[in-house]
Model the fold of this input.
Amino acid sequence: MSDKEETSKIETEPKTPTRDELVKRNALIIERTFESFGIYSRVVEVDIHKNMVHFSIEIALGTKIDDVLALHKDLALALASPSGDVEMEAPIKGRSLIRIKVPLLTNPKLDPEKYKIIRIAEKEPAENSLKSFFRLLLRLIIIVFDWLSEKLRVVENKI
Done:
């Protein structure tokens, strides 16, 4: 095997993320998932246990705790929780934080034969969704104006 073949083989093998990388990625996923639902939060503490990771988050002032707790299934989906759920404790006694308990994924590799992996662009969710909303709104306005102008032409031709 030549050096070029070995180099290309090494580059194409997927790198297994370390536990710390997984925890950092999950913290970012938690923040972005809440942000996509209009809840602004920040992971302020992470406690790694044997089978569980506890993320402590603070939320924006005025956010209802029930709104945060209602998203536990959406959060489990975004985190690909091995149990299919996450536990949430709100508020943590004596603190103004919410604790999210996520089971630790022992084998983060997905079988590519069984699952199709989709990469999502690394953009700010609020910015991306806001731009998408305005693009959709602009398209809708154009469609409505086209429809109205067609109807006006039909009416003018009848007159």
Residues 121-159 form one domain.
